[in-house]
Amino acid sequence: MYQQTYDVVIVGAGLSGLQAALTVHHERLSYLVLEARDRVGGKTLTLRSSEGVVKSDLGAAWINDSNQSRMWELAKDLGLHTYVQNTQGDVVVQDFDGKLVKFPYGDVPKYPSQDDTESCISIRDLVEDISTTQMPSIFAAGPHREQLDSISFETFLRQAKVTEKAFATAQVWTHAMLGVDPAEVSALYFLEYCAAGGGLMTMRSDCKDGGQYLRIQEGTAAFAEGMAQRLKPGSIKLDSPVGKIEQQDGTVSISTRGRSPQVYRARKVILSIPTPVYRTIKFSPSLPAAKSGVANHTRYGFYTKYIVRFSKTFWTDRGLCGLGQSFIGPVSVFRDTSLGDDACMTCFIGGRFGRKWAVQDAERKKASVLKQIGDMFADGRDISPLFMEAYESPWMDEEFSGWGCPCPAMPPGVLADGWKALCAPFGNIHFVGTELSTVWRGYMEGAIRSGESGAMQAMAELKAGDQQIAKL
């Protein structure tokens, strides 16, 4: 029986996989997309009501219209509508003793100790300087990379002689950005992660050019849904987790598992799945030791978004913008994610705070978050009468995301020597994903850019191979 051999099979229908498919589609090559879930979008997941009304984004949620040019172009192309993240009002910091420090958005918190204030500014400026300098760039080969990769970000902070309050501030960054404690990630990885987003200040910013500037009224799932509609009908196979990839005689065999296992053949495979998911696939021949060694050392931290809807935005009545950070948890960072009259607050819970919080039952988890919100944004009052509902992101329990979100990180001793091996093709298999991008790594922008570059590389090799055959 005849079995079609596709030019390209893409494994994974997240943003990087869909962009790879679109790039191949535009070149009029044959392709197929295999997706393990029953939906497209990967770690973009929009929660909608039964009537289709957007309630919240449980995964990636923000873009901007300047340095995230690919996402902005895509939003315009798909006719999506954006709205600006609220920054009007004061930011709140919850100190070690529970006391609050308030300051206008864009300013810096003024702590009782001048040493603490200066130390926070100093470490912020040091991380910003290293992550934005071009002479040499942190991405450029050199001894600076090996040195930074030999220590954890915690050691980096201790060597900088920060105060405990400045250390706690930096821990808020790692909790909110990667779900890890400073001891769990190499200094190089965290600083390079910042550099990929244009620097710490840009990544943390909710203003113009920042990582949290614009949200999508239709929900970020609309990106993947719109992209999928532009592919050839029938080219996406849902509920098709891949169990084996075998390379032989210049082609690749891709076997799915589950209730209706299938085998597909391709000249090239683009693997668009998180590195922790690699280990769920049997590769024949096995992945190179250097690649699998690095992939097996990538780790998600503990990271979840706990999203709470209220009957009103009580924080704006108190002159607060809804942005807050805490040194005691369980929530490390809060953001106002309301849309119109729908009052909503997104709580980022990560690292050791998150692991401690997660062992409670659902009611205690909710109660602890509501108490913290009341303490920080409602003058300590009971806000439970204003509570409507809460929902938690599913990533920690999902196999096909690698049991985590938003981006796998690396401990000391992996990145400096392992980056090239992690990104390199293996035979006719090419690897893409936001974690493999050097621009906006961990963000939707990084996913789109990686998917396109991986597809271009695969197609260039196909073209070169065809030209070689034509000469024979």
UniProtKB/TrEMBL annotation:
Pfam families: Amino_oxidase
Alphabetized SUPFAM superfamilies for the sequence: FAD-linked reductases, C-terminal domain, FAD/NAD(P)-binding domain
Amine oxidase domain ranges (all copies): 15-457
Domain of life: Eukaryota
EC numbers: 1.4.3.-
Keyword Flavoprotein in record: yes
Catalytic activity: a secondary aliphatic amine + O2 + H2O = a primary amine + an aldehyde + H2O2
Positions annotated to bind FAD: 16, 35-36, 242, 435
Keywords: FAD, Flavoprotein, Oxidoreductase
Cofactors required: FAD
Name used for this protein in its record: Amine oxidase
UniProt source species: Cladophialophora psammophila CBS 110553
Binding annotation for substrate: 348
Family that this chain belongs to: Belongs to the flavin monoamine oxidase family.
UniProt GO MF annotations: monoamine oxidase activity
